[in-house]
Amino acid sequence: MKKILLFFLGQTLLVATAFSQQALLTEIDSAKMPLGGGAHYMPEYLLDVSTNPAAWTKEKPGLHASFASTDQLYFRTEVPALEKENLLWQATGWKGERLNTQILIWSPDTLQQVRFILTDLKDKNGKLLSKNNIGLNKVMYVLSNYPYNAKGFDCGPTPYKNGYLMPDRFEKFDRFDVPGKTIRPVWLSCNIPAEAEAGVYTGTIEVRTATAKTVLNIQVNVQKQILPKPHDWHHRLDLWQNPWVISQYYNVKPWGEDHKALLKKHLQLYADAGGTFITTYGVHSPWAGNEYVLEEAMIDWIKQKNGSWKFDYDIFDQYVELAMSVGVDKAITIYTPVPWGNRFRYMDEATGAYAYETWAPEDAVFSERWNVFLNDLKRHLEKKGWLNKTYIGINENAMEQTLAAIKVVKKNWQGWKITYAGDWHPELDTLLNDYCFLYSKESNVEQVKARAAKGFTTTYYVCCNPDKPNNFVFSPPAEGRWISWYSAAHGYDGFLRWAYDAWPADPVRDARFGSWAAGDCYLVYPGGNSGIRFEKLREGIVDYEKIRILKEKAARSNNKQVQQLIQQLDQHLAQLLPEKEFNMEKISNDVQDGKKILDQLSELL
């Protein structure tokens, strides 16, 4: 019996040892583990704690509701810093314009079943602005690797070890609960119909919980001016897209019907903000594979058995046609003759395998192969009717490589349009049809005017730098709107940003991506959902359009007050150019002061 017992003990130890060794094979350091949830899926991480818990003890029990500025963020566990609860929202806009505000809901104790009941807005004559024009979205919190309004960083790793919750992502709702000692922002958008009659419209929003209610009041002044539809805006918005991220996120077949249906909704959001450029890829993984989901080639290069080349445009055509179907149809950019590392991929028909080669722009093989490609591409674009709106896109590279690539493209055909994103270089000025400068590394205003006189377009961009102004999830929202006021002040045609949708692993909850600042890689969310950053960018683009339209109308007016206001507007824009400090309150006031001038001009013209 003892021998049998010893046998089983020995076997048990062997099994335990083996189990332990096997477990070690798949062990993961706890510091590298993703954030865990509870028994149910967490739509956002609830990991923050108040920096001033005593402030909650001073709040009256029950429901608190107030309108609040869209120029700043409000944090989940902090009592909102408002002078008083504001129960009235007053706004002025054009027909066809979207007006935005935030509603904050908070309480020191838990609120259950918070919901909103809207009424139609009416003017003094009984005319209606239907409540169907008002949209409400719950603002969800996403994880950032920098605190709010952070400064003094670049594209390197964050010095902060902790994460920070930032309100940004929109989510539709019927009702929601608010845990005690927290707030929930709600984003309200009022889309004024183009056919609405001018006048002052008023209405209410009743906020109810399971046990309480309060009433908020709305007053919208609709001016006589009409804002064109986004498709007809002159502002050139170029947000680089990665359609493969959509198929990967939803686990659907790339370029299948499900993928294209998702893409169409996704692109509609871009079109609604005046999206101009369709981002396409003539080479595989142009940015050296530093994205979470690679940008793959939309035009396959195929080396045939006889050594000649052919090109498959199937994916390119599908994506361009899809984008055009929702109204993004003014420009196509094909990236790039100069991929990072000069690495090119092609299909070797003899082996059936992909081959990779390095073709530097200065080399004869580059010139030979790109001439073959460009000749074929030109024929294809002419056949599709897209040649005149297509740009060959070149991103920031060593100057000798950039000049060599441009020389090859222009020698192939002088009619090729070229767009370039990078620092200002005088030697590139006359070679580029569309030049996009990195903010703070730009030409001066006079050089932009000179480009315009030649029929060239000029824009600017931000990316993982500079720290300000920018569109990170931790950037004060006022910066997103200020960006387009700066465009107007500098005489730019628009704005570019990488990227529209380069999502990381968990974009709805965690905006961090490698060493880059959270939100750098994307502006919109899965499901074709917007957020604070994207809406503030859109607000600024609308301001840009209004400035353009009002200046054109003022040029035909003899009204002295109009001319005085235009002079005041020009002076106001000029004082935005030397901005360096980016004090949140100042840039918010600068935008609001500019908007007041636009409102006055709108009434007079």
Task: Give a short overview.
It comes from Danxiaibacter flavus. The chain has 605 residues and is of the alpha/beta class. Helices cover 30% and strands 25% of the residues.
Quick tags:
605 residues; eight-stranded parallel sheet; five-stranded antiparallel sheet; 12 helices; disordered N terminus
Folded structure, characterized:
With 605 residues, the protein is an alpha/beta fold. Helix content is 30%, strand content 25%. The strands form five sheets. Strands 13-24-23-22-21-20-17-14 form an eight-stranded parallel sheet, covered by helices on one side. A hairpin with a 5-residue loop joins strand 15 and strand 16. The radius of gyration is 28 Å and the shape is globular.
Poorly predicted residue ranges: 1-20
Strand portion: 25-35%
- Biggest sheet: strands, sense, closure? 8 strands, parallel
Helix content: 25-40%
Number of helices: 12
Calculate the mean pLDDT score and round it.
94
- Based on secondary structure, the structural category is alpha/beta
Measured between the Cα atoms of the first and last residue, the distance is 105 Å
Largest sheet strand order: 13-24-23-22-21-20-17-14
SS elements, strand count: 24
Shape: globular
Please compute the radius of gyration using only Cα atoms.
28 Å
